[in-house]
Amino acid sequence: MTFLNQVQGLTGLTISASDTSPTRDELSQFLRDGLIDVINRMIQVKPEETPKFTTTTEDANNSGVTVQGKIISVVREHDSTSTLRPCTPISPQDRYEATDTDSLKYRSKYNPGYFALDGKIYTRPISAGSDNSSLVTQVSYDTGLTHDDSESGVENFPDEYAYLIALYAGIKSLEAKMAEYTITEEDYELATSMKLSIDNLRRQYDMAFIPGASEGQAQPQQGER
């Protein structure tokens, strides 16, 4: 089932390409915002879940790895893909000193370092391929998520939490519709009724981030609005 179908089922709204509030493009943005919010909140309250939201990228030619989210680990191969030396942070201003064998800040293959500069991660010694690549593991966000995707299509994201993305997008979709009723149509009675639905979905959403709350308690039941 696509996220579009899930959100329509949760909210009772009909969401079309252009003449509804929200539109499908707006729903896609809500889904991407929801994914970011779910990941950030989940790794804060349940740090042990962090590996479920990560990806590892190899840098074989010192081109750097683009920073996407929280850095979990940086390692560098030492003449073998099975020998991985942990890299510790260094200041980017020391990136030259780290290559100078006469400097106290020199980093060798035995004690490599990494630094962030201009949105990328680099290592010292530099990543050089031939079993001397750098590997950066970080929290990753699927920025290409759209309303046509299904739960299993979200990159670096476990299926067990995908319903939370739909819940978040459902809340935002109802808020958009409520604003339309309030501002454009001035139907305050319908807007008040819709607020009750929003509050219900928000309680379900927030419950998922309370330590000790089970997934069964947080996940909306069939037919629930």
Question: What do these coordinates show?
Answer:
The longest helix has 23 residues, at 162-184. With 225 residues, the protein is α+β, with helices and mostly antiparallel strands. The chain contains five helices and eight strands. Helix 1 crosses helix 3 and helix 2 crosses helix 3 (162-184). A hairpin with a 6-residue loop joins strand 3 and strand 4 (84-86). Strands 1-8-3-4 form a four-stranded antiparallel sheet, with no helix packed on it. It has helices at 3-11, 24-45, 162-184, 188-207, 215-218; strands at 54-59, 65-66, 71-77, 84-86, 88-89, 113-117, 120-124, 134-139. It is elongated, with a radius of gyration of 23 Å. The chain folds into two domains: 3-51 and 143-218; 61-132, no CATH class.
Kindly state the mean pLDDT as a whole number?
Answer: 92
Q: Uncertain runs with pLDDT below 50, 5 residues or more?
A: 221-225
Which band does the percent of strand residues land in? 15-25%
The share of residues in helices is 25-40%
Shape: elongated
- Secondary-structure element series: HHEEEEEEEEHHH
The total count of strands amounts to: 8
The structure class reads: alpha+beta
Q: How far apart lie the N and C ends?
A: 17 Å
- Integer tally of domains: 2
Compute the CA-based radius of gyration: 23 Å
Quick one: biggest sheet?
4 strands, antiparallel
Number of continuous helical runs: 5
> Order of strands in the sheet with the most strands?
1-8-3-4
